[in-house]
Automatic annotation (TrEMBL):
Pfam families: TatD_DNase. Keywords: Hydrolase, Metal-binding. A divalent metal cation 1 binds at residues 9, 11, 101, 215. This is Hydrolase. It comes from Acinetobacter equi. Belongs to the metallo-dependent hydrolases superfamily. TatD-type hydrolase family. GO terms for cellular component: cytosol.
Length: 273
């Protein structure tokens, strides 16, 4: 059965999709994907992000596209102060649903260096300030830095909520984000039987605090992977498999769960009319 779904995190603008973006958009809509968000990561991609967004929205029978521009912590070496002005300009000129993806990522050794951590924090805080100025939710990328992200959000008294995307933290951390008004973003990783920590988090917080995402072209659900040697491209068409994995994990009826996460998504982005 076709249920209305909201892909809250995609990189559907990247060149991986240049050959068949239109076709995939139609297929995604066929599968029930009514909305998708195009998320920013680098200043050099802002123009393409906006173009892909406008392209999708002029199609008939395609998901409605939303823009969430931002500067991703993983690419911290490439960000410049001017890029923040460009971000502010986009927020002024275009209808944006959120700012993303922003946060902290100290997975790589070179990102653990003090000056890199500081630069990530500076860019994160400035983008939180922009989100406050424009009254927008934020889409968080957090790797090996949940405590730091939580403490910055508290210091900043951030009140517009958002999503902790592709959540990799523990139960207590998930609860702390929920307390600050965030939803927990679930990718195709939930379909992986080895993802025990994620399954425990989902079972502890329940359906009221989760949203679905593909994070395409990454995070392909296990069932859709065609090869173990080469990376299989993920697409918004795979979103129903994330719902299936979540339903199985929560032992919930698929239709009821879809209704719940749909509502969670609309509420996060203030789209309830
Ligand atoms: Zn992403």
């Amino acid at each position: 059965m076709r249920l209305p779904l909201f892909d809250t995190h995609t990189h559907f603008d990247v060149p991986d999709f240049d050959q068949d973006r239109e076709q995939l958009a139609y297929e995604a809509k066929e599968k029930g994907v009514e909305h998708l968000i195009l998320i920013g990561f680098l200043h050099s991609r802002f123009n393409d992000l906006i173009q892909a967004h406008q392209f999708i929205n002029q199609l008939d029978h395609a998901p409605k596209s939303h823009l969430a521009p931002g500067l991703h912590p993983f690419y911290i070496e490439e960000h410049r102060i001017e890029h923040l002005y460009a971000l502010e300009h986009i927020l002024q000129q275009h209808e944006c649903i959120a700012i993303g993806e922003i946060g902290l990522d100290t997975f790589l050794t070179q990102h653990k260096a003090l000056e890199m951590v500081q630069k990530q924090k500076d860019f994160f805080i400035t983008q939180i300030e922009l989100a406050k100025q424009f009254k927008k939710p934020i889409l968080l990328h957090i790797r090996k830095s949940h405590a730091d992200v939580l403490s910055i959000l508290k210091q900043q008294k951030f009140q517009y909520g958002g999503i902790a995307h592709a959540f990799s933290g523990g139960i207590e951390e998930a609860k702390a984000f929920i307390k600050l008004g965030f939803k927990i973003g679930i990718t195709g990783q939930i379909t992986n039987p080895n993802a025990k920590k994620l399954q425990q988090v989902v079972q502890a917080i329940g359906a009221d605090h989760v949203v679905l995402e593909t994070d395409c072209p990454d995070m392909t659900p296990l069932c859709c992977q065609t090869s173990t040697e080469h990376r299989t491209r993920n697409t918004p068409v795979n979103l129903p498999y994330v719902l299936d994995g979540l339903a199985e994990c929560l032992k919930m009826n698929r239709t009821q769960l879809a209704e719940r996460v749909w509502w969670n998504s609309l509420k996060t982005f203030d789209l309830i009319s």
